[in-house]
Amino acid sequence: MMEEDEDTGGNNSTYEIDLGNLTVEDTEDEPVSTISTNGVAPQDEPPLILEEVTSPVPLVTPTQATKLMAQVQDSHMAINFKFEEKVFTNGQKPPLICGSCQKEGHCKADCREDELPPLVRLPPMNNHFLNQLTAIFEQLTKDFEPSVEEIEERDRIVSDLEAYIKQFFSGVQLKLFGSSANGFGFQRSDLDICLTFKGNPEGKDIDHIQIIEALADKLKRYRQCNHVFAITTAKVPIVKFAIRRACLEGDLSLYNTLALQNTKLLATYANIDHRVKCLGYAMKYFAKLCDIGDASRGSLSSYAYILMVLHFLQQVKPPVIPVLQELYDHSKAAPEYMIDGWNAWFFREAKGKTLAQHWKDYGKNRDSVGQLWVSMLRYYTETFNCRGHVVTIRQ
Question: What's residue 1's pLDDT?
Protein backbone atom coordinates (compact mmCIF):
# COMPACT_ATOMS: atom_id res chain seq x y z
CA MET A 1 0.00 0.00 0.00
CA MET A 2 1.43 3.39 -0.99
CA GLU A 3 1.18 6.06 1.70
CA GLU A 4 2.21 9.69 1.81
CA ASP A 5 4.65 10.30 4.63
CA GLU A 6 3.05 12.88 6.95
CA ASP A 7 6.31 13.48 8.79
CA THR A 8 7.95 14.79 5.59
CA GLY A 9 5.15 17.16 4.68
CA GLY A 10 4.21 15.24 1.58
CA ASN A 11 7.59 15.71 -0.06
CA ASN A 12 8.64 12.12 0.40
CA SER A 13 6.56 9.03 -0.20
CA THR A 14 6.53 5.93 1.95
CA TYR A 15 5.81 2.59 0.33
CA GLU A 16 4.58 -0.13 2.61
CA ILE A 17 5.57 -3.66 1.66
CA ASP A 18 3.39 -6.18 3.54
CA LEU A 19 5.47 -9.28 4.21
CA GLY A 20 2.64 -11.06 5.97
CA ASN A 21 2.41 -13.69 3.25
CA LEU A 22 6.12 -14.42 3.10
CA THR A 23 7.46 -17.76 4.28
CA VAL A 24 10.96 -18.72 5.39
CA GLU A 25 11.52 -20.54 2.13
CA ASP A 26 10.41 -17.48 0.11
CA THR A 27 13.03 -15.25 1.71
CA GLU A 28 16.03 -17.50 1.19
CA ASP A 29 18.52 -16.60 -1.52
CA GLU A 30 17.55 -18.73 -4.50
CA PRO A 31 19.96 -20.20 -7.05
CA VAL A 32 19.85 -18.64 -10.51
CA SER A 33 18.39 -21.81 -11.98
CA THR A 34 15.41 -21.91 -9.60
CA ILE A 35 11.96 -20.51 -10.16
CA SER A 36 11.03 -17.46 -8.09
CA THR A 37 7.84 -17.02 -6.07
CA ASN A 38 6.39 -15.19 -9.08
CA GLY A 39 6.73 -18.37 -11.15
CA VAL A 40 9.64 -17.13 -13.27
CA ALA A 41 13.38 -17.43 -13.06
CA PRO A 42 15.04 -14.58 -11.07
CA GLN A 43 16.70 -13.17 -14.18
CA ASP A 44 13.27 -13.00 -15.89
CA GLU A 45 11.41 -11.36 -12.98
CA PRO A 46 9.45 -8.24 -13.93
CA PRO A 47 11.01 -5.10 -12.45
CA LEU A 48 9.36 -3.69 -9.32
CA ILE A 49 9.23 0.14 -9.68
CA LEU A 50 8.55 2.15 -6.53
CA GLU A 51 6.48 4.77 -8.38
CA GLU A 52 4.22 2.05 -9.73
CA VAL A 53 3.48 0.43 -6.35
CA THR A 54 -0.12 1.36 -5.49
CA SER A 55 -0.97 -1.40 -2.99
CA PRO A 56 0.85 -3.64 -0.52
CA VAL A 57 3.05 -6.19 -2.25
CA PRO A 58 2.28 -9.59 -0.71
CA LEU A 59 5.86 -10.79 -1.08
CA VAL A 60 9.14 -9.91 -2.71
CA THR A 61 11.98 -12.17 -3.69
CA PRO A 62 15.55 -11.45 -2.60
CA THR A 63 16.36 -10.26 -6.11
CA GLN A 64 13.44 -7.81 -6.10
CA ALA A 65 14.31 -6.62 -2.61
CA THR A 66 17.86 -5.84 -3.73
CA LYS A 67 16.54 -3.79 -6.67
CA LEU A 68 14.06 -1.95 -4.43
CA MET A 69 16.78 -1.00 -1.97
CA ALA A 70 18.90 0.30 -4.85
CA GLN A 71 15.99 2.55 -5.89
CA VAL A 72 15.60 3.80 -2.32
CA GLN A 73 19.21 4.90 -2.24
CA ASP A 74 18.67 6.96 -5.43
CA SER A 75 15.44 8.62 -4.28
CA HIS A 76 13.83 10.37 -1.36
CA MET A 77 11.48 7.51 -0.75
CA ALA A 78 11.24 5.02 2.10
CA ILE A 79 9.97 1.47 2.33
CA ASN A 80 8.15 0.04 5.31
CA PHE A 81 8.54 -3.69 5.69
CA LYS A 82 6.07 -5.48 7.96
CA PHE A 83 7.63 -8.34 9.86
CA GLU A 84 5.00 -10.52 11.48
CA GLU A 85 5.21 -13.58 13.66
CA LYS A 86 3.56 -15.86 11.12
CA VAL A 87 6.22 -14.90 8.56
CA PHE A 88 9.04 -16.24 10.68
CA THR A 89 7.23 -19.20 12.23
CA ASN A 90 5.17 -20.18 9.18
CA GLY A 91 2.20 -20.25 11.53
CA GLN A 92 3.84 -22.88 13.75
CA LYS A 93 4.71 -22.64 17.42
CA PRO A 94 8.19 -23.52 18.74
CA PRO A 95 8.49 -27.28 19.25
CA LEU A 96 7.95 -28.57 22.79
CA ILE A 97 10.88 -30.85 23.61
CA CYS A 98 11.08 -33.00 26.73
CA GLY A 99 14.15 -32.37 28.84
CA SER A 100 14.19 -36.01 29.93
CA CYS A 101 13.70 -38.14 26.81
CA GLN A 102 14.49 -35.36 24.27
CA LYS A 103 11.34 -36.19 22.26
CA GLU A 104 8.90 -33.60 20.90
CA GLY A 105 5.30 -33.06 21.91
CA HIS A 106 5.48 -32.96 25.70
CA CYS A 107 7.41 -31.42 28.59
CA LYS A 108 9.44 -33.19 31.24
CA ALA A 109 6.64 -33.04 33.82
CA ASP A 110 4.41 -35.07 31.47
CA CYS A 111 7.05 -37.52 30.25
CA ARG A 112 5.74 -41.07 30.23
CA GLU A 113 9.25 -42.47 30.53
CA ASP A 114 9.59 -40.80 33.95
CA GLU A 115 6.37 -42.30 35.27
CA LEU A 116 6.91 -44.91 37.95
CA PRO A 117 5.08 -48.19 37.58
CA PRO A 118 2.55 -48.99 40.30
CA LEU A 119 4.26 -50.37 43.37
CA VAL A 120 3.71 -53.98 44.26
CA ARG A 121 3.99 -54.80 47.92
CA LEU A 122 6.76 -57.24 48.73
CA PRO A 123 5.51 -60.59 49.94
CA PRO A 124 6.74 -61.97 53.29
CA MET A 125 10.31 -63.20 53.00
CA ASN A 126 11.26 -66.58 54.43
CA ASN A 127 14.61 -67.18 56.09
CA HIS A 128 15.96 -69.18 53.15
CA PHE A 129 15.44 -66.26 50.75
CA LEU A 130 16.89 -63.72 53.20
CA ASN A 131 19.94 -65.91 53.78
CA GLN A 132 20.47 -66.13 50.02
CA LEU A 133 20.30 -62.34 49.76
CA THR A 134 22.86 -62.01 52.52
CA ALA A 135 25.22 -64.43 50.81
CA ILE A 136 24.86 -62.62 47.48
CA PHE A 137 25.61 -59.22 49.00
CA GLU A 138 28.55 -60.54 50.98
CA GLN A 139 30.02 -62.02 47.80
CA LEU A 140 29.26 -58.87 45.81
CA THR A 141 31.27 -56.81 48.29
CA LYS A 142 34.22 -59.17 48.00
CA ASP A 143 34.04 -59.10 44.20
CA PHE A 144 33.90 -55.33 43.80
CA GLU A 145 35.82 -53.75 46.66
CA PRO A 146 39.47 -52.97 45.86
CA SER A 147 42.05 -55.37 47.23
CA VAL A 148 44.63 -54.40 49.80
CA GLU A 149 47.25 -54.42 47.03
CA GLU A 150 45.21 -52.01 44.90
CA ILE A 151 44.71 -49.65 47.83
CA GLU A 152 48.44 -49.67 48.52
CA GLU A 153 49.15 -49.03 44.83
CA ARG A 154 46.83 -46.03 44.86
CA ASP A 155 48.63 -44.64 47.91
CA ARG A 156 51.99 -45.06 46.15
CA ILE A 157 50.70 -43.26 43.07
CA VAL A 158 49.60 -40.30 45.18
CA SER A 159 52.88 -40.29 47.12
CA ASP A 160 54.97 -40.32 43.92
CA LEU A 161 52.81 -37.62 42.37
CA GLU A 162 53.19 -35.45 45.46
CA ALA A 163 56.99 -35.84 45.39
CA TYR A 164 57.06 -34.79 41.72
CA ILE A 165 54.84 -31.71 42.22
CA LYS A 166 56.89 -30.60 45.24
CA GLN A 167 59.77 -29.92 42.86
CA PHE A 168 57.78 -26.97 41.51
CA PHE A 169 55.42 -26.04 44.37
CA SER A 170 56.78 -26.13 47.91
CA GLY A 171 54.53 -27.26 50.75
CA VAL A 172 52.20 -29.28 48.51
CA GLN A 173 50.03 -31.97 50.13
CA LEU A 174 47.97 -34.48 48.15
CA LYS A 175 45.13 -36.50 49.63
CA LEU A 176 42.66 -38.95 48.14
CA PHE A 177 38.94 -38.33 48.54
CA GLY A 178 35.73 -39.72 47.08
CA SER A 179 35.21 -43.40 46.29
CA SER A 180 38.95 -44.11 46.44
CA ALA A 181 38.95 -43.42 50.17
CA ASN A 182 35.39 -43.49 51.55
CA GLY A 183 35.08 -47.28 51.89
CA PHE A 184 32.56 -47.72 49.06
CA GLY A 185 34.80 -47.59 45.98
CA PHE A 186 34.80 -50.17 43.21
CA GLN A 187 37.95 -51.68 41.78
CA ARG A 188 39.60 -49.48 39.15
CA SER A 189 37.57 -46.46 40.23
CA ASP A 190 39.00 -43.06 39.35
CA LEU A 191 41.49 -41.24 41.55
CA ASP A 192 40.08 -38.06 43.08
CA ILE A 193 42.96 -36.06 44.55
CA CYS A 194 42.84 -32.83 46.54
CA LEU A 195 45.85 -30.52 46.60
CA THR A 196 46.49 -28.14 49.49
CA PHE A 197 49.48 -26.14 50.70
CA LYS A 198 50.98 -26.67 54.11
CA GLY A 199 50.42 -23.67 56.35
CA ASN A 200 47.48 -22.41 54.28
CA PRO A 201 44.50 -24.56 55.32
CA GLU A 202 41.87 -22.31 53.70
CA GLY A 203 43.70 -21.59 50.43
CA LYS A 204 43.82 -17.83 50.91
CA ASP A 205 45.35 -15.60 48.20
CA ILE A 206 45.63 -18.48 45.72
CA ASP A 207 44.76 -18.16 42.05
CA HIS A 208 43.19 -21.56 41.45
CA ILE A 209 42.98 -21.30 37.68
CA GLN A 210 46.60 -20.20 37.33
CA ILE A 211 47.83 -23.07 39.52
CA ILE A 212 45.63 -25.62 37.72
CA GLU A 213 47.04 -24.53 34.36
CA ALA A 214 50.60 -24.67 35.73
CA LEU A 215 49.98 -28.14 37.21
CA ALA A 216 48.66 -29.40 33.88
CA ASP A 217 51.79 -28.12 32.16
CA LYS A 218 54.06 -29.88 34.67
CA LEU A 219 52.11 -33.16 34.63
CA LYS A 220 52.43 -33.33 30.85
CA ARG A 221 56.17 -33.79 31.47
CA TYR A 222 55.68 -36.44 34.16
CA ARG A 223 56.50 -39.84 32.70
CA GLN A 224 53.88 -41.64 34.75
CA CYS A 225 51.04 -39.48 33.35
CA ASN A 226 49.41 -39.13 29.97
CA HIS A 227 46.22 -37.62 28.55
CA VAL A 228 46.72 -34.55 30.74
CA PHE A 229 44.52 -31.50 30.29
CA ALA A 230 43.09 -28.73 32.47
CA ILE A 231 39.41 -27.86 32.85
CA THR A 232 39.30 -24.32 34.23
CA THR A 233 35.70 -23.44 33.37
CA ALA A 234 34.15 -25.93 35.80
CA LYS A 235 32.80 -24.88 39.19
CA VAL A 236 35.80 -26.65 40.69
CA PRO A 237 38.74 -26.33 38.25
CA ILE A 238 40.58 -29.64 37.81
CA VAL A 239 43.43 -31.32 35.98
CA LYS A 240 42.41 -34.60 34.35
CA PHE A 241 45.09 -37.22 33.77
CA ALA A 242 45.74 -40.94 33.44
CA ILE A 243 48.37 -43.07 35.20
CA ARG A 244 50.23 -45.28 32.74
CA ARG A 245 51.35 -48.13 35.00
CA ALA A 246 48.01 -48.63 36.73
CA CYS A 247 45.70 -47.72 33.83
CA LEU A 248 43.75 -45.43 36.14
CA GLU A 249 42.22 -42.04 35.43
CA GLY A 250 42.35 -39.23 37.93
CA ASP A 251 41.19 -35.70 38.73
CA LEU A 252 43.35 -33.23 40.65
CA SER A 253 41.61 -30.28 42.31
CA LEU A 254 42.61 -27.53 44.73
CA TYR A 255 41.26 -27.11 48.24
CA ASN A 256 38.26 -29.40 47.89
CA THR A 257 38.44 -29.64 51.66
CA LEU A 258 34.74 -30.16 52.32
CA ALA A 259 34.83 -33.23 50.06
CA LEU A 260 37.82 -34.47 52.07
CA GLN A 261 35.83 -34.19 55.28
CA ASN A 262 32.79 -35.90 53.75
CA THR A 263 35.05 -38.73 52.63
CA LYS A 264 36.29 -39.19 56.20
CA LEU A 265 32.69 -39.18 57.44
CA LEU A 266 31.61 -41.94 55.02
CA ALA A 267 34.74 -43.98 55.79
CA THR A 268 33.95 -43.75 59.51
CA TYR A 269 30.44 -45.08 58.92
CA ALA A 270 31.76 -47.88 56.68
CA ASN A 271 34.07 -49.01 59.47
CA ILE A 272 31.42 -49.06 62.21
CA ASP A 273 29.66 -52.17 60.94
CA HIS A 274 30.43 -54.52 58.05
CA ARG A 275 26.75 -54.48 57.03
CA VAL A 276 27.07 -50.79 56.18
CA LYS A 277 29.65 -51.50 53.50
CA CYS A 278 27.69 -54.49 52.14
CA LEU A 279 24.52 -52.46 51.72
CA GLY A 280 26.47 -49.58 50.19
CA TYR A 281 27.96 -51.82 47.52
CA ALA A 282 24.59 -53.49 46.92
CA MET A 283 22.88 -50.12 46.41
CA LYS A 284 25.58 -48.83 44.03
CA TYR A 285 25.49 -52.04 42.00
CA PHE A 286 21.69 -51.99 41.94
CA ALA A 287 21.72 -48.40 40.59
CA LYS A 288 24.29 -49.37 37.97
CA LEU A 289 22.27 -52.36 36.76
CA CYS A 290 19.11 -50.24 36.53
CA ASP A 291 21.00 -47.43 34.77
CA ILE A 292 19.92 -44.85 37.35
CA GLY A 293 23.33 -43.90 38.73
CA ASP A 294 24.33 -40.99 36.48
CA ALA A 295 23.58 -37.54 37.89
CA SER A 296 24.41 -35.89 34.55
CA ARG A 297 21.41 -37.69 33.03
CA GLY A 298 18.91 -36.69 35.69
CA SER A 299 19.24 -39.56 38.16
CA LEU A 300 21.15 -39.62 41.46
CA SER A 301 24.88 -39.83 41.94
CA SER A 302 26.52 -42.80 43.66
CA TYR A 303 27.25 -40.49 46.60
CA ALA A 304 23.52 -39.76 46.96
CA TYR A 305 22.70 -43.47 46.98
CA ILE A 306 25.23 -44.02 49.77
CA LEU A 307 23.55 -41.24 51.76
CA MET A 308 20.21 -43.04 51.29
CA VAL A 309 21.72 -46.22 52.75
CA LEU A 310 23.22 -44.38 55.73
CA HIS A 311 19.98 -42.49 56.38
CA PHE A 312 17.99 -45.72 56.49
CA LEU A 313 20.49 -47.41 58.79
CA GLN A 314 20.14 -44.46 61.18
CA GLN A 315 16.32 -44.57 61.11
CA VAL A 316 15.77 -48.32 61.41
CA LYS A 317 14.79 -49.57 64.88
CA PRO A 318 17.12 -50.25 66.56
CA PRO A 319 19.59 -48.24 64.47
CA VAL A 320 22.64 -49.86 62.92
CA ILE A 321 24.71 -46.66 62.97
CA PRO A 322 24.41 -43.42 64.94
CA VAL A 323 24.20 -39.81 63.81
CA LEU A 324 27.85 -38.97 64.41
CA GLN A 325 27.16 -35.22 64.46
CA GLU A 326 24.97 -35.66 67.54
CA LEU A 327 27.40 -37.65 69.70
CA TYR A 328 28.54 -34.87 72.02
CA ASP A 329 27.73 -33.59 75.51
CA HIS A 330 24.46 -31.74 74.92
CA SER A 331 24.89 -29.80 78.16
CA LYS A 332 27.59 -27.87 76.32
CA ALA A 333 27.64 -26.01 73.04
CA ALA A 334 27.81 -28.15 69.92
CA PRO A 335 31.39 -28.66 68.69
CA GLU A 336 32.33 -26.84 65.49
CA TYR A 337 34.75 -27.55 62.67
CA MET A 338 33.94 -25.00 59.98
CA ILE A 339 34.77 -25.66 56.32
CA ASP A 340 33.49 -23.32 53.59
CA GLY A 341 30.84 -22.01 55.97
CA TRP A 342 29.60 -25.47 56.99
CA ASN A 343 29.99 -27.13 60.38
CA ALA A 344 31.70 -30.38 59.35
CA TRP A 345 32.36 -31.73 62.85
CA PHE A 346 31.48 -35.34 63.63
CA PHE A 347 32.37 -37.79 66.38
CA ARG A 348 35.56 -39.77 65.84
CA GLU A 349 36.97 -42.43 68.09
CA ALA A 350 40.16 -41.62 69.90
CA LYS A 351 42.20 -43.05 72.74
CA GLY A 352 39.86 -43.47 75.68
CA LYS A 353 36.85 -42.35 73.61
CA THR A 354 35.09 -45.24 71.86
CA LEU A 355 31.78 -45.33 70.04
CA ALA A 356 30.43 -47.98 72.43
CA GLN A 357 30.94 -45.56 75.33
CA HIS A 358 29.10 -42.68 73.65
CA TRP A 359 26.25 -44.43 71.82
CA LYS A 360 23.67 -46.33 73.82
CA ASP A 361 22.38 -48.36 70.84
CA TYR A 362 25.77 -49.76 69.90
CA GLY A 363 25.48 -53.38 68.73
CA LYS A 364 21.73 -53.71 69.41
CA ASN A 365 20.61 -54.32 65.82
CA ARG A 366 21.19 -57.96 64.83
CA ASP A 367 19.40 -58.06 61.46
CA SER A 368 21.16 -59.75 58.57
CA VAL A 369 22.20 -57.87 55.43
CA GLY A 370 19.31 -59.52 53.55
CA GLN A 371 16.78 -58.41 56.16
CA LEU A 372 18.13 -54.86 56.11
CA TRP A 373 17.98 -54.72 52.30
CA VAL A 374 14.32 -55.72 52.19
CA SER A 375 13.52 -53.31 55.04
CA MET A 376 15.29 -50.50 53.17
CA LEU A 377 13.22 -51.14 50.03
CA ARG A 378 10.05 -51.04 52.09
CA TYR A 379 11.19 -47.88 53.88
CA TYR A 380 11.73 -45.86 50.70
CA THR A 381 8.70 -47.21 48.82
CA GLU A 382 6.12 -47.45 51.60
CA THR A 383 7.20 -45.36 54.60
CA PHE A 384 9.40 -42.46 53.55
CA ASN A 385 7.47 -39.28 52.67
CA CYS A 386 9.40 -38.01 49.66
CA ARG A 387 7.25 -34.86 49.41
CA GLY A 388 7.56 -33.74 52.99
CA HIS A 389 10.91 -35.14 54.17
CA VAL A 390 14.51 -35.11 52.97
CA VAL A 391 17.26 -37.69 53.20
CA THR A 392 19.80 -36.48 55.72
CA ILE A 393 22.48 -38.13 57.84
CA ARG A 394 22.89 -35.18 60.21
CA GLN A 395 19.82 -35.79 62.43
Answer: 34
Which residues are paired to 350 by β-bridges?
353
Q: Average of pLDDT values for 263-268?
A: 97
| Residue 209 sits in the same domain as residue 299 | no
Rounded-to-integer distance, Cα 335 and Cα 328, Å: 8
Residue 50: predicted pLDDT: 58
Radius of gyration of the chain (CA): 34
Query: pLDDT tens for residues 54-64?
Result: 566 656 677 77
Determine the Cα–Cα distance for residues 376 and 379; give it in Å rounded to an integer: 5
Long-range pairs, 61-70, Cβ under 8 A, ≥24: 61/26, 61/30, 61/36, 61/37, 62/27, 62/28, 62/29, 62/30, 63/30, 63/36, 68/17
Could you count the other beta carbons within 10 Å of the beta carbon of residue 72? 14
CB 321 within 8 A of CB 272: yes
State the residue range of the domain holding 70: 2-89
Contacts of 338 (CB under 8 A, 6+ apart): 344
Sorted by sequence, the CB contacts under 8 Å of residue 383 that are 6+ apart come out as none
Number of H helices, E strands in the chain: 11, 10
Using left for φ > 0, alpha for ψ between -120 and 50, and beta otherwise, residue 268 falls in alpha
Q: What is the mean pLDDT of the chain?
A: 84
DSSP 161-202: HHHHHTTTSTTEEEEEEGGGTSS-PPTTPPEEEEEEETTBTT
Q: Which residue has the higher pLDDT, 64 or 353?
A: 353
Pair (230, 271) in one structural domain: no
Predicted local confidence at residue 108, as pLDDT? 83
CA 393, CA 387: separation in Å to the nearest integer? 18
Residues 80-93: pLDDT tens digits? 666 777 766 777 77
- Whether 293 and 377 map to the same domain: the answer is yes
Q: Can you give the pLDDT at residue 294?
A: 85
Cα separation of the two ends of the chain: 75
Whether 249 maps to a domain, the answer reads yes
- pLDDT of 375 higher than 60: yes
